[in-house]
Design goal:
Blueprint (H helix, E strand, L loop, with lengths): L2 H80 L4 H84 L2 H13 L5 E5 L2 E2 L8 H9 L4 E2 L6 E4 L10
Parallel strand pairs: 1-4
Antiparallel strand pairs: 1-2, 3-4
Bound molecules: zinc ion (ZN).
């Protein structure tokens, strides 16, 4: 294989690897942010639940005060019964007492339901707290993993960049210039293989004569369509048998 072609293929490979690492390097902080939002989300859901339980208790205390007021009202009405003069007034008062008794029994029922609800909600709050702590712990572990991943990724990138510099020094300035220009204008892909007679950069078919020449890999050819540097990869396309 042509020495410069071989170096250019390796350079393209390194640049692609570095490009992949840079993509991940940009993604990881976003993943960490997402996990931090998740941790906050658990906290907010828990706090909302705690607040809901507090509101429930507040409402219940309000009902209990209402009940107390009704009960003392009832006691007063019962006292009044003793000083009633006429039957009509007596009947009216009895009717009023009956009403207030009904209201009291309804309030008692409501309060009992509220106590039940409070108890089950308080239980749910305790469960949520455990779930929240467990999930947050998991998120924090994931954040740590990603932070460590970022550190090793950067170390890997530095070593690839240093290999790239070494490689670039071995390539002739003309080819390097051509390579950089192509990489810039062709979406990061300057050197591509030819497979089944087609350029793997632009997918266009090459003339059979040119394909045969490229197969030799003994000099550098360009795709006539996209101008990328092309080479033949034997591993990818074994010779037809027979
Ligand atoms: Zn092409």
């Amino acid at each position: 294989m042509d020495k410069q072609l071989d170096l250019l293929i390796n350079l393209q490979d390194l640049d692609l690897q570095i490009q992949q690492l840079e993509k991940k390097e940009a993604e990881i902080p976003l993943q960490i942010k997402e996990l931090q939002r998740e941790i906050e989300g658990y906290k907010h859901a828990y706090e909302a639940k705690v607040q809901a339980v507090e509101n429930l208790e507040k409402n219940r205390r309000k009902k209990e005060r209402e009940l107390e007021a009704k009960e003392s009202g009832l006691a007063k009405l019962k006292d009044q019964l003793l000083s009633i003069k006429t039957n009509r007034e007596y009947q009216a008062l009895l009717h009023e007492i009956e009403n207030i008794k009904q209201e009291i029994s309804q309030l008692e029922e409501e309060i009992l339901l509220m106590i039940d609800e409070s108890e089950s909600e308080a239980k749910r709050v305790r469960e949520m707290k455990l779930e929240m702590e467990e999930s947050q712990k998991l998120c924090r572990t994931r954040i740590e993993e990603r932070e460590q991943g970022l550190v090793s990724l950067r170390q890997h990138k530095i070593s690839l960049e240093s290999s790239r510099e070494t490689l670039r020094r071995q390539i002739s300035p003309e080819w390097l210039k051509q390579y950089d220009k192509l990489r810039k204008s062709r979406g990061g892909l300057a050197v591509v293989s030819v497979k089944d007679g087609s350029c793997q950069g632009c997918c266009m078919s090459l003339m059979p004569q040119l394909f045969q020449e490229i197969k030799q890999n003994d000099q550098i050819y360009s795709c006539p369509h996209c101008h990328r540097i092309v080479y033949y990869n034997e591993e990818r396309e074994p010779e037809a048998v027979g």
